[in-house]
């Protein structure tokens, strides 16, 4: 499906790169955007005056209106984007819906960015033109189509996983969007958003806007459509389009809003999830601060109770150098006590006793019979 921005960012950057290059560069690029839209850019050094751009989208429809072919009115609108710059190649490149030959040298000076941006909006222009043509063919004044039971809804697929239906009702055309999401959190946010959208649309201030409705079950007009389209987890959103919504410039705005409804819902869900996550982080930070303040108050009370003990410990605190020396002495004493070997101390050899230097008397432990005692006065 189309995106919120009309211009293709990749196509715009590539064309600007080719236009601003000092020397011709070879370009053969094939890329996809949004799942169903594809582009092919061909620029050859042998023909530096022309850039070939091919584009197509996956279109599936059911009903009398065929959207796979581009109408002559759409061709004229594309040519008028830049007269003298765009030529339509017939037939288009194989496998593509449209091929353009761009003469970038014919772009007026000072208008290159504006013209290339308009050229990058080609796919959005094609999609809008096709849906505009379909709405014009479904006459609002002719209610015979709505009364005909054989008038089946038109199934439009701009993205493989995002089809929507358009069918005729008396004095209005209804567009129905089946909504599916992978994450359960997205389902909750989307359901709440749809209900709020219905409430806002029912207010008097929104009386001129297309009426919106939401239902968990599909409308009766979709009976008989593929089961995979009718099996949803977020219900069905419907918009009623009247004749005043397709008059003049309102037609372009109405068509563009219908094409971008899926993208708008996804954008809203993404923003809502980001907002909820920011709120949760702020709430968690406030709770953490509250817990930190409580723990600090408890520590302050504990310090007041044990204040005297703390001051005594600080008063008798041993200096760091003396404390390390004391620990080393204790460790050395412990090792000496548990040692099983003699300790050799250098410098103590001179204190050894030598019999040549000192003679010691010998004493006997047994008493002798000849021993005599002298009385001391």
TrEMBL record:
**UniProt keyword list:** Actin-binding, Cytoplasm, Cytoskeleton
Q: Does the keyword Cytoplasm apply?
A: yes
Against InterPro entries, the record matches this protein to: ARPC2, ARPC2/4
Domain of life according to the entry: Eukaryota
Gene3D superfamilies from the xrefs?
3.30.1460.20
Q: What is its main location?
A: cytoplasm
- Localization annotation: Cytoplasm, Cytoskeleton
- Family membership: Belongs to the ARPC2 family.
What's the stated role of this polypeptide?
A: Functions as actin-binding component of the Arp2/3 complex which is involved in regulation of actin polymerization and together with an activating nucleation-promoting factor (NPF) mediates the formation of branched actin networks.
Quaternary structure and partners: Component of the Arp2/3 complex.
In Swiss-Prot or TrEMBL terms, this protein is called: Arp2/3 complex 34 kDa subunit
Q: Which organism is it from?
A: Camelina sativa (False flax)
Q: Taxonomic lineage of this organism? A: Eukaryota, Viridiplantae, Streptophyta, Embryophyta, Tracheophyta
């Amino acid at each position: 499906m189309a995106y919120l921005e009309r211009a293709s960012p990749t196509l715009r950057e590539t064309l600007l790169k080719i236009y601003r290059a000092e020397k011709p560069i070879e370009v053969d690029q094939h890329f996809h955007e949004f799942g169903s839209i594809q582009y092919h850019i061909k620029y050859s050094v042998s023909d530096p005056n022309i850039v070939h751009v091919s584009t197509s989208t996956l279109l599936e429809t059911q009903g009398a209106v065929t959207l796979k072919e581009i109408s002559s009115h759409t061709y004229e609108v594309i040519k008028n984007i830049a007269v003298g710059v765009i030529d339509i190649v017939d037939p288009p490149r194989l496998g593509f819906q449209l091929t353009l030959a761009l003469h970038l040298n014919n772009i007026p000076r000072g208008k290159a960015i504006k013209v290339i941006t308009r050229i990058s909006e080609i796919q959005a222009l094609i999609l809008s033109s096709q849906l505009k043509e379909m709405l014009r063919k479904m006459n609002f004044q002719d209610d015979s189509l709505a009364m005909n039971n054989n008038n089946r809804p038109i199934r439009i697929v701009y993205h493989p996983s995002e089809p929507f239906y358009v069918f005729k009702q008396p004095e209005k055309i209804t567009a129905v969007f089946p909504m599916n999401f992978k994450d359960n959190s997205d389902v909750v946010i989307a359901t709440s958003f749809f209900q709020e959208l219905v409430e806002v649309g029912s207010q008097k201030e929104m009386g001129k806007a297309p009426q919106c409705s939401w239902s968990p079950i599909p409308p009766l007009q979709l009976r008989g459509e593929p089961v995979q389209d009718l099996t949803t987890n977020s219900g069905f959103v419907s918009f009623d389009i009247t004749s005043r919504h397709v008059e003049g410039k309102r037609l372009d705005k109405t068509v563009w809003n219908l094409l971008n409804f899926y993208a708008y819902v996804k954008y809203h869900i993404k923003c809502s999830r980001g907002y909820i996550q920011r709120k949760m982080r702020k709430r968690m930070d406030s709770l953490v601060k509250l817990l930190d303040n409580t723990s600090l108050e408890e520590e302050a009370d504990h310090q007041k109770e044990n204040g005297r003990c703390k001051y005594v410990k600080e008063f008798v605190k041993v200096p760091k150098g003396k404390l390390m020396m004391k620990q080393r002495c204790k460790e050395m004493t412990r090792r000496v006590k548990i040692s099983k070997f003699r300790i050799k101390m250098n410098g103590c050899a001179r204190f050894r006793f030598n019999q040549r230097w000192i003679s010691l008397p010998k004493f006997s432990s047994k008493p002798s019979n000849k021993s005599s005692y002298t009385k001391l006065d």
